[in-house]
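Q: What residues go here?
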């Protein structure tokens, strides 16, 4: 993950504001890099010093997660730190599920979303907000993509019971989309799994500990 452009170079690159955010959120822009590729830039440089201080840890954390997931189709192929207060993530072309025509949610797509979720888990990461319809994409080739790993956690250090419960949270995001868009094709096994996981939702107070209630930055 090498640096592609600096802060000084960023000022002269074509950019589109995606979200200005609130005090504790990054300013998010879509930037065309010197090589013509599109990058999502998260920038905290305009925020107060105490926000920037925390943001530096959040940016380092997200970069480390993306590095661990590098090579998984459906996760950003590259990301780098611009400076202490900002980072760039290679943009994945596509539409978030919150904005799509339900007819595009085919059983084939949903099956591949499950496979992508499991690939993330095999890499030792849980996303923890895949139930959201704003963090999942249908990419231009019709395949799934996952964005926004700010709240994600590594699982290599966790006891097995905790790791499995957190992976269940992610998988319920896929099953929830089956239930909404393709209930007839969902199958009994997925229905049973969703019921089982929903019964464990009292354990999801863990999510508050991991910071997943931070307001998510919406994709335009």
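A:
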């Amino acid at each position: 993950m090498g640096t592609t452009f600096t802060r000084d170079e960023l000022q002269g690159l074509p950019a589109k504001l995606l979200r200005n955010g609130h005090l504790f959120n990054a300013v998010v822009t879509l930037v065309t890099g010197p090589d013509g590729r599109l990058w999502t830039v998260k920038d905290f440089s305009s925020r107060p010093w105490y926000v920037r201080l925390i943001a530096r840890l959040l940016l380092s954390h997200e970069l480390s997660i993306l590095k661990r997931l590098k090579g998984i189709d459906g996760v950003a192929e590259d990301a780098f730190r611009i400076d202490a207060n900002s980072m760039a993530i290679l943009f994945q072309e596509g539409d978030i599920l919150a904005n799509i025509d339900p007819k595009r949610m085919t059983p084939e797509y949903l099956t591949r979303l499950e496979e992508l979720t499991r690939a993330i888990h095999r890499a030792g990461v849980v996303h923890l907000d895949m139930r959201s319809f704003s963090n999942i994409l249908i990419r231009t080739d019709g395949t799934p993509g996952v964005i926004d790993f700010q709240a994600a956690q590594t699982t290599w250090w966790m006891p097995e019971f905790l790791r499995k419960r957190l992976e269940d949270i992610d998988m319920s995001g896929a099953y929830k989309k089956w239930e909404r868009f393709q209930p007839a094709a969902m199958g009994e096994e997925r229905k049973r799994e969703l019921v089982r996981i929903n019964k464990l939702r009292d354990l999801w107070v863990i999510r508050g500990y991991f910071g997943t209630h931070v307001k998510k930055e919406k994709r335009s």
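A: Context that may help when evaluating the design: Confidence is low (pLDDT under 50) at residues 208-218. The chain has six helices and ten strands.
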